[in-house]
Fold this protein.
Amino acid sequence: MLSLLKAFFSSHRCVEHPDSFAMTREVLYDGVHNAIKLQQSQGKSVWLVAHFPRVFSECQLMLEKNGIAYQIIDTEPGAEWLNEHATDAVSDVYLGLSDTLEPLVERTERDDGGFSGRIAMMIAERHPYGPRDIRLLAFAKSFPAVVEIGYYVSFEDAVVRQRLPESTLQVLKSFGFDDNALISSLVVSSRIQKRIRKESAGVNVVEETDSAEQWYAIHDRGRE
């Protein structure tokens, strides 16, 4: 019975939240800042993650502007990293690129290194290539701690602006979408992810770029 309970709880380490949307990046970062303070007040470690260097830099500026102390994840957070950071304050903030986190999903076994507590993993953008976010979710599920993961997306982002019909935004506004606040929408999330999955199927080589806009410029041209 004990082994069954252990298997059940170990398979539920990751909690996925609906995407949060904002009209602009400015409003988005205000919302991310508030979300970080909320998660810290609940005793959670915050991992702020970007896919592209441009958004990474924007996140860095947001943290510094608001006086939030943070550590940059510049190496794979495997067993050695966990041992080193096991005594960190539970409410610490970490900032990293998704490329740094992805190798962890290749592990065959987990070593918690004494790491404890809950992690709020906040992804500051969606990647135009679906498998990148699938691997990031796999990382969150493989991490030896309870992880809550959620995406923060702006309607200014290329992945939304170029792929979401204007009618969808109008529907949200009809339901009282506040231009100066975040909103969570499973409908919008599913539409965006469906479009990303469809377009990702036609991508053979993924180029490394500074931003999602550059990524689309290269890959859309390759499909012409």
In short: Residues 47 and 94 are 5 Å apart (CA to CA). The domain at 12-223 is CATH 3.40.50.300 (Rossmann fold). Strands lie at 14-16, 20-22, 45-50, 71-73, 93-97, 118-123, 146-154, 183-184. The chain has one domain: 12-223.
